[in-house]
Amino acid sequence: MTNPPSLIINNLPILQKISQAYKTWHNALPHIPRLTRYSLGEKIDKYFLELTELTLTAGYSKKELKLLLVQKASIKLDTLKFLLQTAWELKAIENKRFADLAAQLVETGKMLGGWQKQLIKETPSQWGES
Fold this sequence. Notes:
It is a single chain. The protein is mainly α. It contains 4 helices and no strands. It has a single domain (13-121), classed as de novo design (two linked rop proteins) (Up-down Bundle). The chain has helices at residues 13-28, 34-59, 63-89, 95-122. Helix 1 (13-28) packs antiparallel against helix 2, helix 1 (13-28) packs antiparallel against helix 4 (95-122) and helix 3 (63-89) packs antiparallel against helix 4.
């Protein structure tokens, strides 16, 4: 069996990081206690998907929209990290999985931050300053 062609993920390395983290999360989800899985777990899953969507949209948007979308993705990522930490504090996620997810999301945050800084440099401010 041959591997299917990679569609978009190769054009945006940050999507590879997000996808890797989501796969880690997806493998952890069945092991989360039922009460948490169908509340906080579903919320975390939703935030992962929204982060992916915002990042993908930013990657293919016009220059004027990119910065706003990257900033929204950054906020989504910070909220996602907070929700994952909460799940860990509730002992819904085992230590190793949480550590793996945290490391992957920290790297994602660095990539988003770098992208945001680059966009700020490239985008003239709304006040006409550079």
